[in-house]
Amino acid sequence: MATKILGLSAYYHDAAACLVVDGEIVAAAQEERFSRTKHDERFPRAAVAYCLREGGITAAELDLVGFYEKPLVKFDRLLETVLACAPRGLPSFLTAMPVWLGGKLWLAETIRKELGCDREVLFGAHHESHAASAFYPSPFEEAAVLTMDAVGEWATSSFGVGRGNELALLQEMHFPHSLGMLYSAFTAFTGFKVNSGEYKVMGLAPYGEPRYVSLIRDHLVELHEDGSLSLNMDYFDYCTRLRMTGRAFERLLGGPARRPEAPITQREMDLARSIQVVTEEAMLRMARHVHQVTGQPYVCLAGGVALNCVGNGRILREGPFKEVWVQPAAGDAGGALGVALSLWHRYLGRPRRSAEREGTWQPRERAAAGEVPPYADQMKGSLLGPSYSEEEIGAWLAQEGYAARRVDRAELPRAVAELIAQGQVVGLVQGRMEFGPRALGARSILGDPRSAAMQSVMNLKIKFRESFRPFAPAVKRERVGEWFDFDGDSPYMLMVSGVAGARRVPVPEAEAARQGLEQLKSVRSEIPAVTHVDHSARVQTVRRETNPMFYDILTAFEELTGCPVLINTSFNIRGEPIVCSPQDAYRCFMRTQMDVLVLETFLLEKSRQPNRGADEAWQYAVATD
Q1: Residue 279 and residue 182 in contact, taking contact as beta carbons nearer than 8 Å
Q2: CA gap 255, 110 in Å, rounded
Q3: Of the candidates 415, 350, 341, the residue with the CA atom closest to the CA atom of residue 384
Q4: Cα(570)–Cα(578) distance, integer angstroms
Q5: Do residues 386 and 442 touch, judged by C-beta distance below 8 A?
Q6: In the chain, at which end, N or C, are there fewer CB atoms within 10 A of the end residue's CB?
Q7: Is residue 208 in some structural domain?
Q8: Integer Cα distance of 387 and 381 in angstroms
């Protein structure tokens, strides 16, 4: 009889559920996609219900339930931190106590009550769950594992080695010293939301100069050769108050933090660049130390810091590892997947399949010249969420009276590619929803990367977000080396590389001197809409065997234009999670200046929709994130 394991993460941010059956990842999803509350931290009721439904089982049929961290150990850290900082930490302690006494200390009972059945609940350590989510689904039979985030129970970073179904962590770095906390402190100081806006800091960094690097290194953090670090806690308030930084931090950096939604100045750009430089150096040092200790040729990454795709790209290019694999749900949501796989492989001792052993993955170095080596992992392209049948969608469209035309599936890629080539912006909902923070062609907004105006149009009129934010290119895997300084697999949009020199165009001398956001006005390549101001791009490579519809759209666009690249951004607007259902997609579509919506084989044009523009005022009152 099959063994069914439910993994859970919740109560910090990005609650999620994952169902693993006999070692196979059957379903995984974040609660935010169903509740429509971004980074929803509550018990993932809807995500659990979806996973059970996808597996065709009830909660009573589960064999094991795992939670991604150990609440009692986390509570111990809270108590010890308060005592060490007494009496300054008392206000935050009093705020946290009702939450812990009201439920977090009795989590096993809470989970059983939520599931409505009496099942054994097992708890994995936070960074062990991250490590398991990184190694077990990876293509490697054997690899080093590096996890980096803000904090779990006590650990803030860890590394170890995975072999077959075994996984052992060798060293940890402990709270309050944390690379994730350091980056989040600058996220808050530059006016963005912690645990949400870190990627904005990363995107803002190329506009600035590293003017604060020496100051950061001299006063805030000491980087050790092994990649560990020591923070000067005189400048950080997160141990004692409900905030990241205080007056000492402000005095050091020459003034108060930027207020959310205030104009972004050169100072914020320089701060972003500076903390990005320091973070990348820490990541590289960690990677080199891990390689030196383990001797492994491959490394797997997870934890929130592993979403820093600029740092990941540098580890791949400059680090000692031959291959780097990053868990697509690298943050806390991925902990649900990690604890489920850890229960199967470590707790039950069941064997593990790896693509390397089965021959469905091959290192790039073994490939013949010009050959694309086979690639597979156990994540199924991270397409692990719900899908909606054509029958369901057709019935709903007819019921609502929305204007749609059905396109034969074989003809759909060409129809979509033609619209994009004409300058239209297309929202695409097809197949199973992505697990993790990136849209990978199932819940995506697509545009023409050749358009110099498209980056601003999509940011301001469709995503309603800051103008500086870059967009990512999706490219056919066999063409990636022709367009980018990269010739590997990056299926989860977690690697940054440069646009290939042959695709760049010279910036006129009069424009080269532009500073700050003025740099946006310069065209830097044949695909300006996905070329950042430093000629970088967050690349997604697409294979037909993983996502045939998206690949075929790329192929059709290449046949029409000679360009195998598309803008691929998540199907959502600022402050909202990525869409899940056709209903979510239609609402988003109608509240933006998107031109066309594709729901499986149904094509909806904005100009033909009833009540077009009825929600026009809404777009100016979008909740900030």
Answers
A1: yes
A2: 45
A3: 341
A4: 6
A5: no
A6: N
A7: no
A8: 14
Q: Is residue 253 part of a domain?
A: no
Between 82 and 169, the higher pLDDT residue:
169
Asked if 131 and 145 touch (Cβ cutoff 8 Å), the reply is yes
Average pLDDT score over residue span 30-51 = 97
Question: How many domains in the chain?
Answer: 1
CATH number for the domain that contains residue 523: 3.90.870.20
Reported as a single tens digit per residue, the pLDDT across 477-497 is 999 999 999 999 999 999 999
Please say if the pLDDT value at position 423 is more than 90. Answer: yes
In the predicted structure, residue 467 carries a pLDDT above the cut 90: no
585 to each of 92, 420, 576, 615, how far by Cα in Å? Answer: 39, 18, 12, 14
CA neighbor of 299 nearest in space, from 285, 287, 289, 313: 287
Structural domain that includes position 472: 382-621
- Measured distance between the N- and C-terminal CA atoms of the chain, rounded to whole angstroms: 45
Question: How far does Cα 137 stand from its chain's mean position?
Answer: 16
Per DSSP, which regions of 24-165 are E strands? Answer: 24-30, 64-67, 121-123, 142-148, 155-163
Which pair of tokens denotes residue 625? 């994130």
pLDDT in tens, 283-297: 999 999 999 999 999
Q: What is the pLDDT of residues 211-254, one digit of tens each?
A: 999 999 999 999 999 889 999 999 999 887 778 999 999 999 99
Residue 392 placed within a domain: yes
Which of 85-89, 317-321, 565-569 shows the lowest mean pLDDT across its residues?
85-89
Closest CA to 609 of 392, 375, 463, 404: 404
- At 616 the pLDDT is 42
> In this structure, which long-range contacts are made by residues 276-281, counting pairs with CB atoms below 8 Å and at least 24 apart in sequence?
276/201, 276/202, 276/205, 276/310, 277/205, 277/210, 277/213, 278/182, 278/213, 278/216, 278/217, 278/221, 278/223, 279/179, 279/182, 279/183, 279/305, 279/308, 279/311, 280/308, 280/310, 280/311, 280/314, 281/223
- 8 Å CB contact between 86 and 31: no
As given in the structure block, the two tokens for residue 414 are 């060409």
Cis peptide before 87 (omega within 30 of 0): yes
* Pairing, β 323-326 against β 229-231: unpaired
Instruction: Please answer whether residues 338 and 130 qualify as being in contact, where contact means their C-beta atoms are separated by less than 8 angstroms.
Output: yes
- The single-letter code of the amino acid at 330 is A
Query: Among all chains, which residue has been given the structure tokens 């693509």?
Result: 355
> For position 465, what pLDDT does the model report?
85
Query: How would you label 533-553 residue by residue, b for 16+ Cβ within 10 Å and e otherwise?
Result: bbbbbbbbbbbeebbbbbbbb
3-state secondary structure 437-491: CCCCCCEEEEECCCCCCHHHHHHHHHCCCCCCCCCEEEEEHHHHHHHECCCCCCC
- Cα gap 316→55, rounded to integer Å: 36
The sheet carrying 16-21 orders its strands as 24-30, 16-21, 4-9, 64-67, 121-123
Answer whether 279's CB lies under 8 Å from 308's CB: yes
CA 203 to chain centre: 14
Which residue in this structure is represented by tokens 């694999």? Answer: 325
Given this model, what pLDDT does residue 93 score? 65
The answer to whether the CB of 14 falls within 8 A of the CB of 331 is yes
User: Mean per-residue pLDDT for 373-378?
Assistant: 95
Residue 619: pLDDT band by 50, 70, 90 thresholds? very low
pTM above 0.90, yes or no: yes
Is position 221 within any domain?
Answer: no
pLDDT for 403 equals: 95
User: Is the peptide bond prior to 528 cis by the omega test (within 30 degrees of 0)?
Assistant: no
